[in-house]
Predict the structure.
Amino acid sequence: MKEPAHKKSKLCIDSDDTQEITTDSQNEKTDIKSDDNEFIKTTEHDKDKTSFDDSDFSDLGKIVTGAIKLNTMSSAEKISHIQNQPLPDDVAKLKAGRAQTTNTGELKKTLSFQSSWMNQFSWLTFSKLLNGGLCKFCVMFPQSDVQHQNTFVTQPFTAYKKALGKTSALLKHQNSEHHKSAKSVYHTTKMTSEVPSSSLPYKLNQQNQAQYQHNIKLLEKIVDAIILCGKQNILLRGHRDDTTSDSSNKGNFLAILQLLAKHDEQLWSHLQKAKKNALYTSKTIQNEVIQLIGNHITGKILKSLQGRGFYSIIPDEVTDNYANKEVLVLCLRFLDTREHPAIIKEEFLDFANIGRTTGEAIADKLIEILRLLAIPIENMRGQAYDGAAAMASEKRGCQGRIKSLNQLALYTHCRGHVLNLSIASACKLPLVRNMIDVLNSVFIFFDSFPKRQGFLEIIIENDGSVDFSRKKLVGLCKTRWVERHICFDVFYTMYKFVIKCLLHILNQNLDESTSEDWSWDKQTKVTAQGLLASMTSFSMLITFVFVRYVLDTIKPLTLKLQKRDIFTASKLIEEHVDRIKKFVER
């Protein structure tokens, strides 16, 4: 039964989808197409009825038309747009729709967007800009398979007569896969924003952080073992430090790690269960860690020097007997103004292998190191070397070549080295040289033969007159003459025991305390007789006492020079010269 013509229905189904609309009140014509993929144009009469204040809402039509770029919006902004859509009651105030006419052109019925659809389909919203329905989820979170599903997504839904029924466009869109995917993305994004700890990226990040902290703790223990070996001057590995080696002793570094693992379950599990390419104990890793530590130390030194003004270089070359190579060592002397008060520092900076020890080769290597570390040569104000021609020559020496680049880099002969050379020159006197030869011969006589050394120790132990803990003589320092005062002090203290020991070797029955049978070969007795004669001669004794006194006097001066206390050292020089003069005069 048909409804009365005067009663308007909310949904009118007309067989003719395309009509020419004529309204008596407006007298204007508009061609309207109801195709699902076309926008619907409303008359001026309809526009007046659809006007409402939407300033409080986010019109998704701006997203569809490109007025607002979706790729510039954050997840939180997308969710805010979805939540800020008009409610069904707001849409109910609209009279949005289009007019339907009869074949004669008379106005028949008007189709409009129904707010009740929004109650039934929570994803549906109305766009005033496009005058049609849109899917909140699909517009804000479009899926890749949406190219054939433009309605509700890239174009508004305006075919209102197809909203419900057997061919319901609303149901069709709701059941589509791209809509379900978009809805799922929305709920996941919303939950992530509200509860970040529930998101998959957050959980993966937490898992990565836990693994990162675990690896850091393991690496700290491995690095600590390497630092320990470096500080204690312990070799890290030997020829047995190899994964293919069957030896139970694979080097100091791995032995230290095994010891630590006994008291650290985490480290033990790592060494036992980790993959071979993830143990971080190979020689490659060891060398890399050593290099990183060296770079860190160098960086701290350069940070102290950077922007602080001028500096001086203190290089020297030495032969590496193990590698059989010449090694150039470089130290810097500078004023560290970061300390309060500012202090003078001398820091080891680098060492490098050099093929030749000529002045040119040494100068080239020094310049190369300074430029590599970005230390400006023009800020150099001093260069200190020993007195060798390769270093000190003004024309072909190292100092001359560097001075040609910077005239302000003044050369200074190392004062400690000058003092050492002065003592060495004084010791070339026959009396001093002979006395030193006697001391060296006595040291070799006991040190090279365990039996003689043992006999000397028994002599010292059986002498109850003094509680003397030292029982071995000390050899002469081969390079630093000032350090020979230690040898002189020990020899002075043990002098009477050495004499007594030599007498016992020459005459076994000299003392009852050595009644034990000590048989000595002829060569030992002959050597002992010669040493006894030399040690008891007047010239040797007076020379020994004088040289010992001079070295004891100069020792504090040497320490001051090593500690860079120039002013105090200068005063000590004058005092020591006066003391020696007075001693000679007496």
Q: What stands out?
A: The chain has 22 helices and eleven strands. The chain has four domains: 19-196, 202-281, 305-413, 424-585. Confidence is low (pLDDT under 50) at residues 1-52, 96-103.
